[in-house]
Amino acid sequence: MLPHRHTPRPGARLNDVRLPRRRGRRDSARHGAAAALHGVGAVTVVLLVLAGIGALIGEPVLIPSLAASAGVLHSTPGLPAAQPRSVVVAHLLGAGAGYVALALWQSNAWSAALAGGLTFAATTLARTPHSPACATAVVVVLQAPAAGRFVPLLLGATVVLVLVGSAASRIRRGAARYPLRWW
């Protein structure tokens, strides 16, 4: 017969170190619900901030690809696609691909599709994976915004996304820290 080993209970002290408490099903569900509520709140806040900035300056700052970026950033903050370099650079590459497509072809769905593919290639080569940036290229091709106004607004909006993501990760205790690296 094997000797009985004493296993300390969770929360007990062992050599002056408090052991972590185990979470039961109810605690896990509560933790998951709190994390989901925090994420929904953070995404909603950043999108409202972008909409508010747009309303103040009379320009559309909130575009569909930025809403998708907010979702990526807050649901998977540890992935490379959510890191600031990927978010900012990929959207700028997407805008660039969109303007290249506009210069070469007409504004239509075919050009938009090619611009989306070009964006994916550019972000892969630049090691800035961020799939919502493909939608930025599509927006540029289909809407043909003036580059002098659109690109600075896009840059500012991506910086706002990153800063709100960083602030949100510090508000909730126990949340994963964002970003893992700034650049």
Automatic annotation (TrEMBL):
Q: Does the keyword Membrane apply?
A: yes
Q: Which InterPro entries match?
A: HPP (IPR007065), TM_HPP (IPR058581)
Domain annotation HPP transmembrane region: ranges: 36-173
Q: Does the keyword Membrane apply?
A: yes
Entries under Pfam families matching the protein: TM_HPP
Q: Which UniProt keywords apply?
A: Membrane, Transmembrane, Transmembrane helix
- Name the residues that span the membrane: 32-57, 87-105, 112-130, 150-171
Highest taxon of the lineage: Bacteria
Stated name of the protein:
HPP family protein+B94
